[in-house]
Design brief:
This protein is α+β, with helices and mostly antiparallel strands and 186 residues long. Helices cover 38% and strands 15% of the residues. The chain has six helices and four strands. α2 packs antiparallel against α5 and α3 packs across α4. The two termini are 32 Å apart.
């Protein structure tokens, strides 16, 4: 697949068949993540979680934080007994950066992690895997003990997660490109 075919063939998948993903494939995807551009030379960390107990803990902790958030939409999602924040994917790729206090550094880290997550998604697509970029499960890492359970250093913040695996969704990717959102200044 060439780059543009990969981009146009990517879709957000929310149905996984549970089949394990080979370690060598996951290593390629993780390397793609850390190869992302990083503003101000800041490090991006990619942690691949395949341990079923750790993946389940992310789902549980996410719903716990949602239900206790006081934000109506999050409470509703967290209270839904059928909602699984990682969509039953067997793999959660956590993208994190050093925790910083200054707004510019925090903005850079968020942008850097988003770029890394996109690389993860595109690499997964190119290698025949399904994926979905999610942010609400990053809430799980506000629960004490979750960083340790998932191998995240205390001084890092998880900014993005990509749930991935083999698809149970056979529908083709459909791109709705709104050309009105594209501008040229010449």
């Amino acid at each position: 697949m060439n780059t543009l075919e990969t981009i146009m063939g990517r879709k957000s998948n929310r149905a996984f068949n549970g089949e394990a993903v080979e370690r060598g494939v996951l290593e390629q995807i993780a390397k793609a993540g850390v190869a992302a551009p990083a503003g101000m030379g800041k490090a991006i960390y990619v942690t691949v979680v395949t341990n079923p107990d750790a993946v389940a803990a992310i789902n549980t902790a996410t719903k716990q934080v949602m239900m206790n958030s006081g934000v109506e939409a999050l409470v509703k999602m967290g209270s839904d007994p059928d909602r699984v924040p990682l969509y039953n994917a067997p793999v959660a790729v956590l993208v994190s950066a050093q925790t910083v206090e200054d707004p510019q550094g925090a903005s850079n880290n968020l942008s850097n992690c988003a770029a890394a997550a996109e690389n993860v998604v595109l690499a997964a697509t190119d290698l025949g895997l399904a994926s979905v970029y999610v942010t609400s499960p990053t809430l799980a890492f506000h629960v004490p003990g979750m960083k340790e359970k998932c191998g995240i250093a205390d001084d890092q913040t998880v900014h993005a997660i990509v749930a991935l695996g083999y698809s149970d969704d056979k529908a083709p990717a459909v791109k709705h490109i709104n050309e009105a959102n594209i501008k040229f200044v010449e």
